[in-house]
Amino acid sequence: KEAGIGYGSVNHPVDRDPVCGYNGIIGDVCPKCGRTESDGVAFERIRRITGYLVGTMDRWNDAKTAEEADRVKHSVMTR
Ligand SMILES: [Zn+2]
């Protein structure tokens, strides 16, 4: 509140490959079956927006899509 931040959240992106059923973080290549989206089937990418998990990003409007693009990824130090 003192820093002028009205809302903050930690989001955990979850992707799913509808072909093989893999759930987790998918970059360009599915870590389970090794396929890419170039074969015609898109990966499902579920993200939190305005506090809710609303399904995949393909129904987001421009403002929500821009907000997701501005997010900063953080990592947790592990040893
Ligand atoms: Zn897969």
Keywords:
79 residues, alpha+beta, four-stranded antiparallel β-sheet, 10% helix, 20% strand, binds zinc ion
Short description:
The protein contains 1 helix and 4 strands; from the N terminus they run ββββα. With 79 residues, the chain is an alpha+beta fold.
Question: What would your notes on this structure say?
Answer:
The protein has one helix at 62-69, and strands spanning 14-16, 23-24, 44-49, 52-56. The mean pLDDT is 80. The longest helix has 8 residues, at 62-69. The protein has 79 residues and is an alpha+beta fold. It has one helix and four strands, in the order ββββα.
Unreliable runs, pLDDT <50, ≥5 residues?
none
Chemical compounds bound to the protein? zinc ion
Strand arrangement in the largest pleated sheet: 2-1-3-4
Largest sheet: 4 strands, antiparallel
Q: Strand-residue fraction?
A: 15-25%
Strand and helix layout:
Blueprint: E1 14-16, E2 23-24, E3 44-49, E4 52-56, H1 62-69
Antiparallel strand pairs: 1-2, 1-3, 3-4
